[in-house]
Structure formats: C-alpha cells, structure tokens
Design goal:
31% of the residues lie in helices and 21% in strands. By secondary structure, the chain is α/β, with parallel strands linked by helices. It has an eight-stranded parallel beta sheet with strand order 5-10-11-12-13-14-15-16. It has a seven-stranded mixed beta sheet with strand order 3-2-1-4-17-18-19, with helices on one face. Strands 6-7-8-9 form a four-stranded mixed beta sheet, with helices on both faces. Helix 10 links the parallel strand 13 and strand 14. It binds zinc ion. Zinc ion (ZN) binds next to loops.
Length: 500
C-alpha cells in the first residue's frame, strides 16, 4: 500500500550532544537522508533549533485500554485498609451525579499491608444498587459488589476474587455499560499523553481482542502510536486460522502489527501468587506458600510450539524465579522465540541460557519503587535477585523497558529513572549494583533502535537536554533529571504527533 505520510525534514538537529546540527529527511516512514543543509523544497520542514534527536521511545508492556480507563476510575491506590476503600467509594457515589444502577470502577487497592481480607458485604453496604468493581493495584485480583456479580452474570463470591475467578471478569469489563464517547476520548487522551513523553509505540497486552479493536481505532483517528497487539491462548486458534503472523500489518494505516502470544504462567508478588523456588514469607497466606503456577512447563511448551509453528513469537509472564526457569525451558524445548515479561525475581544461572536463546527480558523498573516494601516483607531472603537488570546486561540478555500500565504510569522516563537510581524516596537505592547507566536505560527503551541512520524508522524525538548527562552520573539528581525530561517534539513515521 502506498504510504500517505508527508515527506518531512527535521532541520538543524544534533545526533549527539555537542556535535554540529544536521538535517534529517523522513520519507515513507523511514529516514531517507541525513546531512548538512538538505534541500527543503517539497518537504514539510520542522525547525529543530539545534535540539538533540533520539530514536522514538517504546513501552514494551502496556494494557492500553485499561490504562486509558484509569482516567474514568476512582483511584484507591493510597488506601491502607478495606474501610478506607469503602469510605472512598461511598463518597464518590454521594458526590457524583450517577444514574441509578450506574457502574462504579475503582483501581489500585493493595492487600499487602492489610491485616484482613475485604468482604463483598462491606462493599454492598456502600454500593447499594451500583455495580462496583475494584481492580487491585497489580491487576491480578478483583473486589466486587453483589450488584456487579449480577450485572456481569457471574456467581456471587463472599470476598475478593483470585486470578482464576478474576481474569475472566477482568477481560470482560468492557461489557459493562459505559459511554462509548468517554472510551474514545480517554484513549485519545492517553495517546496524546504518551506522545508528549516521546512514546512512538507500544506492545499492547490488552485482554480484549486488540487484533480487531486496534484497526478500528486507527481508522477512527486514534493513530498516534505504533501498536503491536498480542493474543492470549484463548484467541490463538483464531489467529492461526486467520493466518496472521507476528509482524504482519493489521490496519490500513500500517500502524498496527501482530505481536506475540502472551501467556500468563504465574501470578504476582502482592497477591503472593508469583511462582517461586522458595516459599513466600509474611503472615497472610492465600494458598501454596511458593505461589501459583497457572500453566505448567509441558503446557507452556505445547502452546509456544504451536505459536512458533504458525509464525508467532511468545511473551511469557514470569514473575517468580520458578516460573522463569519453566518459561526458559519451554522456549528452549519449543524452538519459539520472544520475551519473558517481568522476570522480577531471577536465578542468575538461567540468564546466560536466556541470552543464548535470544530471549528478551521485558522488564518494568518502576515496579521496583512500588514493590520495595512488599518485597522486603515477602521476599526478604532474595532482595538482591529482584529486578536484576545489571546481571541481565552482563549476561547479554536484550532488555526492553515498559510500564505495565495501569500498574505503573505509562512513562518511559519514570522507568528509566527507576532503572538508573533504584529509589523513589529518600531511602538509599535498592541493590544499587543492579542499576543501569542512563545510556543503557535509554537503549532499552527504543525498541532495539540505538542510532539515527538512513533506512531506520522515522520515529524520532527531539529533546532540549541530554538525558544521559555525564556530570550527574550515579546520583539521585540523575533520576530526577530523567523524570523531568519532556520532549520538544515527537514524530511517528515523520508525522508530528506532539510538539511543545
Ligand atoms: Zn501486564
């Protein structure tokens, strides 16, 4: 299909700090020419004013619809007990002019510091006829009111739902009645916000079928980002039947491509369901002390082999170290390639094998800020093996940074800051020996593109400062500097998607 992209010229930009400005021509979505004083006729000229140009940023793990939906949800992330959550919901219902029976969604509760489990009954006391759905901060558990169970046609439960009961509901939250204009508007706003941070593409791990939703969205003008959309095992046979392979373009605009088969092999830290070699420590136990294996090695191998035979790469969610061992073994046995998602707790000895297989570690450094306290409670005996980014680099494992939004905000600068200075507050960095340099963090945020070259993608970001300033090396100020970075302009295939 002939490209509709205008032919753009970024005039007067620096490829490296301190070098002379050059012009960069982008044609048909790719860098066509780089040089001083390129011919301007026929080009849409953007004056770079000497700005630094870097490759566009990618978020390698997002739940985009859920992220956009957070703007329509009650934030309960700062609550410390079930009573605080119900009080917040009661206030929201009292203060908002809701239709009778309108749905209320909330997000962000975390059970880690609570001394008891919440109940459906206490939520009913404040919810009345409103279906209330409260998503946990790591998205791995749900707390629902009785009216929500009825609205969703699901069996009533006396308390919060674990993954087995929750995920089927979470994947169908879009069935709850919401105003479609709100949905479109929130996705547009989330895309503009991402572009303002220099993001040009995402790997979308949304549960609902992105393969149909995204082409519809780009056709409706929601086209500021490249999107790689995944499938889950439930959708795998449909993808195979449609003969769609990873990398295939799915929409008219050429912005949406098929991504991986995503498989959630274990749970999460905060719900104590990450599948570990050693038991969790701490008091409240919700089952097996070593966590929970959702898919065993054999089934994982079968799924990956089937995907591989039909041209799909894999993306295996593995948070605990036992899950990581199984995932790497399953990739090796199946011949499939792809990524380990999260790899939050590792065993160092498996990393060389990951590198040998070319498996990408798709990691979310900002989680280390949120998970620091829970890790100290639940995994105090293995702190140095969490978010072991330095070990991964040393072993030669390719790194990709992401947010797992809505678990953390879709902000690559926040992820980079957490990767280089592992502290969100006044505390000393957590296991500073595992930190990345800013250059490494940036290189892990650009989808494998590490230089601006002819033939490379026309996905570019202009900055008014060097993100990797030498003089800040190893300081908290370096992280603050990264968090403050806001691009002057962002281009996707030469088309401007943000300017300031
Ligand atoms: Zn995720």
């Amino acid at each position: 299909m002939p490209s509709q992209d205008p032919h753009a010229l970024l005039a007067g930009v620096r490829l490296r700090p301190g070098t002379d400005p050059v012009d960069v021509r982008v044609r048909d979505g790719k860098i066509a020419e780089i040089g001083a004083h390129l011919r301007r006729s026929g080009a849409l000229v953007h004056d770079g004013g000497g700005a630094l140009v870097i490759p566009g940023l990618w978020d390698a793990h997002v739940h985009f619809g859920q992220w956009a939906a957070t703007t329509r949800r009650v934030d309960v992330s700062d609550t410390a007990a079930p009573e605080e959550v119900t009080a917040r919901i009661a206030r929201h219902i009292a203060e908002t002019d809701l239709e009778p029976g309108a749905v209320v969604q909330g997000f962000g509760w975390r059970i880690t510091d609570w001394d008891r489990l919440p109940t459906t009954a206490e939520l009913d006391d404040v919810a009345g006829d409103h279906p209330v759905v409260l998503i946990s901060g790591d998205c791995h558990a749900g707390w629902l009111s009785s009216a929500a169970f009825r609205a969703l046609g699901r069996p009533h439960r006396p308390g919060p739902l674990d993954e087995d009961d929750w995920f089927p509901i979470y994947t169908h939250l879009t069935d709850l009645p919401e105003d479609p204009r709100d949905v479109h508007g929130s996705i547009d706003a989330a895309m503009r916000d991402a572009a303002a941070k220099g993001v040009v593409g995402i790997v979308d791990m949304e549960f609902e079928s992105g393969r149909t939703a995204w082409p519809w969205r780009t056709a409706a003008g929601l086209d500021r980002l490249h999107v790689r959309t995944c499938t889950y095992p439930e959708g795998l046979e449909d993808v195979i039947a449609a003969r769609v392979r990873s990398g295939d373009v799915l929409d008219e605009a050429g912005m949406v491509t098929m991504g991986p088969l995503k498989i959630i092999s274990d749970g999460s830290l905060n719900t104590r369901t990450a599948w570990c070699c050693d038991p969790f420590l701490g008091d409240v136990s919700l089952g097996d002390p070593r966590g929970k294996q959702n898919v065993d090695r054999e089934e994982l191998t079968e799924l990956l082999a089937r995907a591989h035979a039909h041209g799909l790469v894999g993306a295996v969610h593995a948070i605990g170290d036992a899950a990581l061992l199984d995932a790497v073994a399953a990739f090796a046995a199946s011949g499939a390639r792809g990524s380990i998602e999260h790899a939050q707790l590792v065993r160092r000895e498996v990393l060389p094998r990951m590198a040998e297989l070319g498996l990408v570690a798709s990691v979310q450094p900002a989680h280390l800020l949120d998970d620091r306290d829970s890790t100290e409670d639940l995994w105090p005996d293995r702190l140095e093996r969490c978010f072991a980014l330095r070990w991964m680099v040393q072993a030669g494992v390719p790194l990709r940074l992401g947010s797992d939004a809505p678990v953390a905000p879709l902000d690559p600068w926040l992820a980079m800051a957490a990767a280089v200075h592992r502290s969100a507050d006044e505390r000393e960095p957590w296991a500073p020996e595992q930190a990345l340099t800013p250059q490494e963090a940036l290189a892990a945020s650009t989808d494998g593109i590490t230089s601006i070259e002819v033939g490379g993608p026309g996905d570019l970001v202009l900055l008014d400062d060097d993100p990797a300033r030498e003089d800040l090396h190893g300081t908290a100020e370096q992280a603050a500097h990264l968090r403050r970075m806001r691009p002057l302009a962002t281009f996707v295939r030469g088309r401007i998607t943000h300017s300031r």
